[in-house]
Amino acid sequence: MSESPVEHFEHAEHAGHASLLGDPFLTQVSVTIAILAVIAATVGSLETLETADAIGDKNAAVLLQNKATDTWNFYQAKSIKKNLYAIAAATPGPAADELNKQAEKYGADEQELFSKGKALEHQAEEKLRDSERHENRHHILTVAVTLLHVAIAIATIAIIVRGQRWPWYGALVLGALGSIGAAYAYFV
């Protein structure tokens, strides 16, 4: 990512100055630089958004896993109580029916907590997968924006060495690769 949020505008401004020199080739190069700057700014913004989404999803996964852990702790507590009441109900006495009812109540609570715990774990895993997807996109977009920045720099060389087209062609190739890379990030 660039260090200055206005760096792309500076490239476009320099390209604008070069276009005033009257050389049609320099005008082409200047327009190319301006277009590459806009694409680089857009891809840089997408890279930032993917980073934020990756962090957000990872945090959500941690919170969901904490909730799942709490739910499993409640599940274990209900299970222990159910088993204690079941053992107590197995001994003969006047309270056996009441103890059986308590064991059944804790058994129902136990089943509900089991389902809830599984659902929370599934949601946490899903958020982790989402985070990984955003992180992968971020890495691809980082390479893409780097290619675009290099393309801008090489296109600027075409202005400096007036009349030589090889830097401009190189910039076009790198700009195309950066743009294709940015689009590719959303298809993987």
Report on this model:
It is built from four helices and no strands. With 188 residues, it is mainly α. It has one domain (7-184). It is 87% helix and 0% strand.
* Oligomeric state, counting identical vs distinct chains: single chain
Write down the secondary-structure element order.
HHHH
Mean pLDDT: 89
Identify low-pLDDT runs.
Answer: none
Fraction of residues in H or I helices: over 70%
Global outline: rod-shaped
Number of helices: 4
Number of structural units classed as domains: 1
Query: Main β-sheet, in a few words?
Result: none
State the end-to-end CA separation.
Answer: 21 Å
Strand content: under 5%
Rg for CA atoms: 31 Å
Number of strands: 0
**What structural category arises from helix and sheet content?**
mainly alpha
In short:
The protein is mainly alpha-helical. It has 4 helices and no strands.
Helix and strand topology:
Layout (H helix, E strand, L loop, with lengths): L6 H13 L4 H67 L5 H65 L5 H19 L4
Which characteristics define this entry?
single chain, 188 residues, mainly alpha, rod-shaped
